[in-house]
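Please decode residue identities from the backbone states below.
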């Protein structure tokens, strides 16, 4: 193994650039390990950018007695708001109640448990409301006169992934996108990884491939320990259905729930579905039945009806849920399992099965702790709960102040532009705004407040290579730019 050892610059290779993989790379790099993160496409190119954009405990998981999962997620909700106050923010949710939903007091008890199961938090507790006297009731039909409001959080999911990768790189990790793994071979105390036409050696591998976790395990010659259910969650975006900052959680006749969330100022995000996904993972889209289901879901509650023709954007992601034989897809656990290969087999591989975006940081910490039992280089202190993600090193209730500071420093920015930039980049916005005194100083204007300076930053710092990377993951400006503006950006970026 002398040759392999001489060519083994990495302590850990993480395969999969979703939220779990980026989180593991960040944690391990911060403990001093030499880390390489490999992603076959773009960071957050799959499920991690196709979520409902929530950091939440999962109120509905209480119905399935997932108390431990809810408790952990509620704690992480507080942590993520603390370390990423630019991309995470509190949101109040309204739950309209009708007669078909059962006991009012049962719902009240569930919300009381949700308020307290995670320990003492800082968000406001739930409260019973009369919808006729509440701002959120104005958009609803009259069948629901009562309801509740409670607290949870919103997150820019794709930026959460990217910022974890940026921080991992700043702490010494290497990040390779568009670098699919084609071969994975254990050679004694090392893994030989072939990816993107190159060969890498590493002392350990983390399989963070999400819905492709089985395929990667089989590529390495390993038998998956857990079954995986691939469950597709689809979302639609329509012109806004209400003019306030409350979100809605809407229970459906089939007992599923659906969210309607203020989105990008001018829109409402509606989701999600739970459908078994049996086809390939290359082209995942919301099908016609799912779009119609989501339209019907909000039409049961809102006075303003929508049809599939109103949908301006739809997206779908496949969640890899641990299969314990639950019946309906929505009943499948959102918990996770970590599988570490046997010590006598040689170089370790650890597979991540399942999970949810809210718990990614805690999952990453557990992954690195497990590997640390076999790799002393990883045996550092826990640190990710107290160190801000890039751009987020400011008090979590000061996002409004940051917007005002940007407006003062860069008076050519309109309030909407300053708000978007603050929420995406936080303090790191200064990295590309620099000493600009006008839009002209930022180079070409592609429309919707997207400048050449920002695009250059996204290319050089955040691995954006295509217009899609910029418009639908690093930003959501694809919703605000016409087809000619989008085409101009595509020409500029060469794809």
């Amino acid at each position: 193994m002398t040759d392999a050892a001489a060519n083994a610059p990495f302590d850990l290779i993480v395969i999969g650039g979703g939220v779990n993989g980026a989180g593991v790379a960040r944690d391990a790099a911060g403990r001093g390990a030499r880390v390489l993160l490999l992603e076959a496409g773009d960071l957050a190119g799959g499920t991690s950018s196709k979520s409902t954009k929530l950091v939440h405990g999962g109120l509905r998981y209480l119905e399935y007695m997932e108390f431990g999962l809810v408790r952990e997620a509620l704690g992480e909700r507080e942590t993520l708001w603390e370390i990423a106050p630019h991309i995470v923010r509190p949101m109040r949710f309204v739950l309209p109640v009708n007669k078909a939903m059962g006991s009012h007091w049962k719902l009240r008890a569930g919300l009381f448990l949700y308020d307290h199961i995670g320990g003492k938090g800082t968000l406001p507790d739930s409260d019973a409301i009369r919808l006729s006297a509440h701002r959120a009731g104005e958009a609803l039909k009259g069948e629901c006169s009562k309801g509740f409001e409670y607290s949870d959080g919103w997150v820019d999911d794709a930026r959460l992934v990217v910022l974890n990768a940026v921080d991992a790189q700043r702490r010494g990790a290497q990040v390779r996108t568009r670098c699919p793994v084609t071969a994975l071979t254990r050679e004694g105390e090392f893994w030989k990884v072939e990816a993107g036409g190159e060969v890498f050696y590493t002392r350990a591998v983390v399989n963070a491939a999400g819905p492709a976790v089985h395929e990667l395990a089989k590529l390495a010659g390993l038998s998956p320990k857990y079954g995986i259910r691939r469950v597709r969650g689809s979302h639609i975006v329509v012109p806004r259905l209400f003019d306030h900052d409350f979100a809605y959680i809407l229970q459906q006749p089939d007992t599923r729930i659906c969210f309607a969330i203020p989105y990008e100022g001018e829109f409402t995000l509606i989701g999600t579905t739970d459908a078994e996904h049996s086809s390939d993972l290359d082209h995942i889209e919301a099908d016609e039945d799912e779009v119609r289901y989501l339209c019907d879901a909000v039409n049961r509650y809102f006075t303003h009806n929508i049809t599939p023709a109103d949908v301006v954007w739809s997206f779908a992601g496949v969640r890899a849920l641990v299969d314990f034989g639950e019946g309906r897809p929505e009943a499948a656990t959102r918990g996770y399992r970590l599988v570490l290969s046997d010590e006598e087999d040689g170089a370790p591989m650890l597979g991540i099965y399942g999970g949810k975006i809210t718990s990614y940081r805690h999952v990453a910490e557990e992954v690195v702790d497990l590997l640390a039992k076999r790799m002393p280089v990883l045996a550092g202190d826990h640190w990710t709960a107290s160190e801000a993600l890039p751009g987020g090193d400011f008090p979590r209730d000061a996002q409004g102040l940051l917007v005002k500071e940007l407006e003062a420093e860069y008076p050519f920015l309109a309030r909407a532009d300053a708000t978007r930039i603050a929420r995406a980049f936080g303090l790191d916005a200064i990295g590309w705004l620099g000493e600009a005194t006008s839009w002209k100083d930022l180079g070409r204007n592609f429309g919707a407040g997207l400048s050449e300076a920002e695009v250059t930053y996204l290319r050089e710092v955040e691995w954006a290579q295509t217009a899609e990377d910029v418009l639908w993951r690093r930003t959501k400006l694809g919703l605000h730019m016409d087809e000619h503006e989008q085409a101009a950006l595509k020409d500029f970026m060469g794809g």
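Observation: DSSP finds 14 helices and 21 strands in the chain.
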